[in-house]
Design brief:
It catalyses: 2 D-alanine + ATP = D-alanyl-D-alanine + ADP + phosphate + H(+). With 328 residues, this protein is an alpha+beta fold. It is 33% helix and 20% strand. It has 3 domains: 6-91, Rossmann fold (3-Layer(aba) Sandwich), CATH 3.40.50; 100-117 and 188-312, ATP-grasp fold, B domain (D-amino Acid Aminotransferase, Chain A, domain 1, 2-Layer Sandwich); 121-185, Dna Ligase, domain 1 (2-Layer Sandwich). The radius of gyration is 20 Å and the shape is globular.
Length: 328
C-alpha cells in the first residue's frame, strides 16, 4: 500500500473517553492512537465527548474523526449518527452496523439467520427475570453457562455460572449494566480473535490471535491491567482451522454491514474444533494489550501505520451508493 500523505487527512479529532463503563480503556486507547497519528505528522487532537459538546467538532473545523470510544454512546451508533448529521467522516462502521454489533442479541439473530455458528442463547428481558424464569435457563442451555449484559464490552458484568444457585446473582450483576440480560451456552475450548480491515469485498482478515488466560479468566482485569494472559500470534492453529476462522469472521463482519475495521471474538469447541462467534467489536481496543495491533504486526503493519490506515478510510454512510445504483 502506498504511503498516505498526512496533510491530506486534515484536522483530526481522536474521540476518546466518553461516559460508558469502558471510559478508562478508551482513554488508554485514545492516548496510543493520538501519539501514533502525531508521530506520522497528522494534525490530531484529543476530544472527549463527556466534557465537550459534539457540535464543537464542526465549529472547530475538524475534517474527520478517529473513534476510539468503547461501549455506549460511542460504539453503538449514537456518535456515528451525530457525525453523519454534521457531515464529518469517521472511522469504523456506520450507524446501523454499529448499533447492531453493540447489541449481542440482535447480532446473534442476524448471524443465525445467515447460518453462522454462534452459541445457543436465551434473552431475559427486564420483565422476565423472576427467580423461576432465571432458574429455568440452565435447563435449556446446560451448565456451565455465561451470563452477560448484551450491550456492554470488555467483559464488564460477565459471569461464568457453574450451578443453579449462582444464576440469580449473575443476572442481577448483568442487569446493573443493561435492563436485558443475555444467557449463553458455554463453549469449552480455546478463545481466539480475528481482526478485519477494509469494507465489503475488499475487507481482509488479519492473522488470528489465540488467547491463553490464567484459569480461562479472560476478564476485565486480565485484559487490560496484568501481563498474565498469553497471546499467540501466529496462533499455532492448523492452517485449515485458521482459514476457517478468518472466513467465518469475514462473513460475520459482512452480515452486520461493518466497514473500516473491526474484530470478531470466537471460541473453538474442544470436542470437535468447531469455531463459534461470540461478538463483533466495531471500535476495537488500541491499548498496549490490545489484539488488533498485535494481529496487524504479524501481518507486517506497525502500530503507527495501522492508525493512519484506519483513519484514511474514515467515511460517512451518506457517501455509500444506493442499492442498485439508484439515482435521482
Amino acid at each position: 500500500m502506498s504511503a498516505i500523505d498526512a496533510s491530506s487527512l486534515g484536522k483530526v479529532a481522536v474521540l476518546m473517553g466518553g461516559d460508558s463503563a469502558e471510559r478508562e480503556v478508551s482513554l488508554m486507547s485514545g492516548d496510543g492512537v493520538l501519539g501514533a497519528l502525531r508521530a506520522r505528522g497528522v494534525d490530531a487532537h484529543a476530544f472527549d465527548p463527556s466534557t465537550r459538546a459534539l457540535g464543537e467538532l464542526k465549529s472547530d473545523g475538524f475534517d474527520r474523526c478517529f473513534i476510539v470510544l468503547h461501549g455506549r454512546h460511542g460504539e453503538d451508533g449514537t456518535v456515528q449518527g451525530a457525525l453523519e448529521l454534521m457531515g464529518i467522516p469517521y472511522t469504523g462502521s456506520g450507524v446501523l452496523a454499529s448499533s447492531l454489533a453493540m447489541d449481542k442479541v440482535m447480532t446473534k439473530r442476524l448471524w443465525l439467520a445467515d447460518g453462522l455458528s454462534t452459541p445457543r442463547y436465551a434473552r431475559l428481558a427486564f420483565d422476565q427475570q423472576s427467580r423461576e424464569q432465571v432458574r429455568a435457563v440452565p435447563d435449556v442451555l446446560g451448565l456451565p453457562l455465561i451470563v452477560k449484559p448484551p450491550r456492554e464490552g470488555s467483559s464488564i458484568g460477565v459471569t461464568k455460572v457453574q450451578g443453579y444457585s449462582q444464576m440469580q446473582e449473575a443476572v442481577e450483576l448483568a442487569a446493573r449494566y443493561d435492563p436485558d440480560v443475555l444467557c449463553e451456552e458455554f463453549i469449552e475450548g480455546e478463545e481466539v480473535t480475528c481482526a478485519i480491515l477494509g469494507t465489503g469485498q475488499y475487507a481482509q482478515a488479519l492473522p488470528v490471535v489465540r488467547i491463553a488466560a490464567p484459569d480461562g479468566a479472560y476478564d476485565y482485569q486480565n485484559k487490560y491491567f496484568t501481563d498474565d494472559v498469553k497471546y499467540h500470534c501466529p496462533s499455532g492453529l492448523s492452517p485449515e482451522l485458521e482459514a476457517e476462522i478468518q472466513h467465518l469472521s469475514l462473513a460475520a463482519y459482512r452480515t452486520l454491514g461493518c466497514r473500516g475495521w473491526g474484530r470478531a471474538d470466537l471460541m473453538i469447541r474442544a470436542s470437535d474444533r468447531k469455531p463459534f462467534l461470540l461478538e463483533m467489536n466495531t471500535s476495537p481496543g488500541m491499548t498496549s494489550h490490545s489484539l488488533v495491533p498485535m494481529a496487524a504486526r504479524a501481518a507486517g503493519i506497525d502500530y503507527e501505520e495501522l492508525c493512519v490506515r484506519v483513519l484514511s478510510h474514515a467515511a460517512l454512510d451518506a457517501d455509500r451508493p444506493l442499492a442498485g445504483g439508484a439515482t435521482d
